[in-house]
Specification:
Two copies of one chain form a homodimer.
Chain A: H1 2-9, E1 13-14, H2 24-30, H3 46-58, E2 63-67, H4 70-85, E3 89-92, H5 97-100, H6 105-110, E4 113-116, H7 126-130, E5 138-142, H8 155-168, E6 171-176, H9 179-186, H10 190-194, E7 199-203, E8 214-218, H11 220-232, H12 241-254, H13 258-273, E9 278-281, E10 289-294, H14 298-312, E11 314-315, E12 321-323, E13 327-333, H15 336-339, H16 343-357
Parallel strand pairs in A: 1-11, 3-4, 3-5, 5-6, 6-7
Antiparallel strand pairs in A: 2-8, 7-8, 9-10, 10-13, 12-13
Helix pairs in contact in A: 1-14, 2-12, 4-11, 9-13, 14-16
InterPro entries (chains A, B): ArAA_b-elim_lyase/Thr_aldolase, PyrdxlP-dep_Trfase, PyrdxlP-dep_Trfase_major, PyrdxlP-dep_Trfase_small
Protein name (chains A, B): Low specificity L-threonine aldolase
Family (chains A, B): Belongs to the threonine aldolase family.
Chain lengths: ~350, ~350
């Protein structure tokens, strides 16, 4: 598989992302900032407060707090709702970030029990929530559901789940790591989506392409409590400004590009689906991301992709994940890099790929 | 008290610190870094691994892990030792950072019981440890003890406590937030001090003057476990390099200045102690820091300091903390800023202060 990675690293262009994650990303964000601007100090000061207010307004919530990571922000959100409901139980998708990527932080730190809703290969629907057999303090919905290619429930379903939760006094939390990325599909503002939820987390290094960091938004009491927990976690650093300044810079640069990323994702998915033994999930993307699946073994596909990448100077992927039944897959998230490639070069790339997959 | 802060902000020079905590601190650290240098990714990559190795070597420990904060690093260290000893109890000073500045994170997250050793106004001595009436998993020593002006036990005492803990199978953890700052007094290397401890934390934004961040060092098994907990806390950010690059830059710039800071601290403390109704704790500093105490009320001292600061263009302090019995105090930590002030200007400053305090 090193051959695939090496060929990817040599490419001039890439289908995914916003370019390499190198130090220039931070240097660019800082180049027009006055050196005299004062640091935030342990969660206070203009740099952090102004940005928190900007995000609170975007998300239509009363207040917001900047966090070094979404992992920290979301565990804390669920803990606060469990404390409020005096019930240590939450529900989320079986492939939630909290379930598979956080070394069981939620359980080890907060001793919160989790109910896994829905089958692994589909999103949570209203019936899953209605048929819950146990009381829960909070339901977490991830939009889009990243681990299954970025799938979404309909907005109507979201509204129904929200109304049901309100009726049953279940707190509804949005894992909106990629919230801005789904707005073009829903044709809604961030505030309109967030209005269905009691609390919201959004990331700054997915579609926005910042360095790291996240925001948690909700009402004033919730956010005050989240700041106490942020301090307990050691997340209220003396200076968070390297992440805040870059989040703000790339937010201003890319928040309005999400429709372009979404359109490119739809076009690329169609091109992949036109190749023999390749299909995408979702078939038609509903955000800037999707998963590409190959109905052939990893070694064969790695060799084909390496050849196609090198011939066209366009990186498709640096890795493949083995799947059951002699197949493999990779994830694609569209950002600025794809927009920089001329259409005829992309057509040529897929001409090569179709030819190799014949 | 705004008058004191305002006069401080107007000063050209300052006795404390390394200069303002503004964005130029980060910009300076990045200016000679190649923009093509790749980010660390979730705790991996050259940037983070090389720096961790450099710090492991400095501290004479097998391995080290970079953390966004000392709060996170130290709670995790104590948790690991408690798990190892199957005993949820640790001991530390009543004014330990964990006891008074972390919103009870250790207790709320890990349910670890704490025994407060020694009186508030002195450091922990061997007798305090020997006379412990309960078993503990771990003893935490903070060198220097910041909240009492940065006091230290003798190195001989440290050796005795270390030997006792080893004999009794008590893990010994070093809160070395200001570890480098005490080496000139002890006349030891960092590794020689750390050799007495099972695990060590050091900060990068005290004497070193970086942006934020900390390192935890210990044996391989301990550090592997600390990385699992770092992930659970949401501390293994996709990119920690803004803190790592600046920690490395300011470490190289200032690690060898600690003796100068220490000497300046001793000189300044002497000048303060020569003024009527002013004394320092410790009387003779043992690091770059000490506390300045005034035997008069806060309002009177604020007015005097504001006048002296404005007349001499040298900032002494921006705040005063009220103390029992009509007295007040502030903390002074010496860094580059003090070294930049000509000796005759400092003499003039203290001539004014002595005159005003007569």
């Amino acid at each position: 598989m090193n051959h695939l990675k090496n060929s990817y690293d040599k490419c001039t262009y890439r289908l995914a992302g916003h370019g390499k994650r190198d130090v220039s990303v931070l240097q660019d964000a800082l180049k027009d900032i006055s050196g005299e601007q004062l640091s935030d100090i342990y969660g206070e000061g203009h740099i952090i407060e102004d940005f928190q207010n900007k995000m609170a307004k975007l998300l239509g919530k009363g207040t917001a707090a900047f966090f070094p990571s979404g992992t920290m922000a979301q565990q804390i959100a669920l803990r606060i709702w469990c404390d409020e409901k005096k019930l240590n139980k939450v529900a989320y998708h079986p492939l939630s970030h909290l379930e598979i990527h956080e070394m069981d932080g939620l359980k080890e730190i907060h001793h919160i029990k989790t109910i896994l809703l829905a089958d692994k290969d589909r999103v949570i629907e209203l019936d899953d929530v209605v048929n819950l057999e146990e009381d829960i303090a909070c339901l977490l919905l991830e939009l889009p559901q990243r681990e299954i290619g970025g799938q979404l429930p309909s907005f109507e379903t979201l509204k129904q789940i929200s109304a049901y939760c309100r009726e049953k006094s279940i707190m509804l939390h949005l894992d909106g790591a990629r919230l801005l990325e789904v707005l073009p599909f829903y044709k809604k503002t961030a505030a309109e989506v967030c209005d269905l939820f009691n609390s919201v987390y959004m990331s700054f290094y997915k579609g926005i392409g910042g360095i790291a960091g996240a925001v948690l938004a909700g009402d004033k009491d919730f956010i005050e409590k989240s700041k106490v927990w942020r301090k307990r976690y050691g997340g209220t650093l003396i200076s968070l400004y390297p992440y805040i300044l870059s989040a703000d810079y790339y937010f201003d640069k890319r928040a309005n590009n999400m429709e372009q990323y979404y359109n490119s994702a739809m076009e690329l998915a169609k091109l992949f689906n036109d190749c023999k033994d390749i299909y995408t999930i979702p078939e038609v993307p509903v955000s800037n991301m999707f998963h590409v699946h190959f109905k052939r073994n990893q070694e064969e596909i790695a060799a084909i992709l390496a050849k196609v990448q090198l011939a066209n100077h366009i990186g498709i992927t640096s890795y493949l994940s083995k799947q059951d039944g002699n197949s493999c897959t990779f994830e694609l998230s569209i950002g600025d890099s794809c927009l920089e490639i001329l259409k005829n070069l992309i057509d040529k790339l897929f001409d090569s790929l179709r030819e190799e997959m014949k």
